[in-house]
Amino acid sequence: MEGMHDMGGMMPPSPMDGAGSNSTHHHTMMTMHVTFFWGKNAEILFAGWPGKLTGMYILALIFVFVLSFLMEWLSHCRLIKGSPLKVTTTTRSLRTIMHAIRIALGYMVMLAVMSFNVGIFLVTVAGHALGFLIFGSKVEDTSNLPAGCC
User: What is the spatial distance between Cα 16 and Cα 22, in angstroms, rounded to a whole number?
Assistant: First the structure.
């Protein structure tokens, strides 16, 4: 424990440092899972959400599923069409905004999966898979590829 004191105050004071029960600061320890676990008692994206209610956990599962599905949709659709020879500033701006939205959704999905909740992981994979099935598999035509090729 003595080597911990050299970390420049990064660790909260322990009772051994004189900051025991007489201290005015109260430290609460929050348990964070670092391995996959089953269960509805998880925090996903926001502090205290979804809480301990089963209905809120199901809502969180649906929310993450929709986020990952939307990511696939945005990855494979061309909402803003323009001629490759004539790309206007407006077209570039709209494409940049759509890209930023897709990236934001991706980071939100990543943070949700980092809750290490198996249910969240499974609905994330399911959302990406369904999105790819509906939107992505139409884009790639593998009929012209040689046998054994992806």
Answer: 12
Q: Are residues 47 and 107 in contact, defined by beta-carbon separation less than 8 angstroms?
A: no
Domain boundaries, the chain: 34-40+48-138
CA pair distance 85, 42, nearest whole angstrom: 50
The partner residues of 50 in beta bridges, in order of sequence, read 43
Q: How far does CA 5 lie from the centroid of its chain?
A: 35
Instruction: Print burial letters for 127-141: b (CB count within 10 Å at least 16), e (below 16).
Output: bbeebbeebbeeeee
Average pLDDT over residues 125-139: 89
- Return d(Cα 55, Cα 40) in angstroms, integer: 9
% of residues, the chain, pLDDT over 90: 37
List, for residues 15-37, the tens digit of each pLDDT value: 444 444 454 555 555 566 677 88
- CA–CA distance, 134 with 140 (Å, rounded to integer): 12
C-beta contacts of 5-13 below 8 A and 24+ residues apart: none
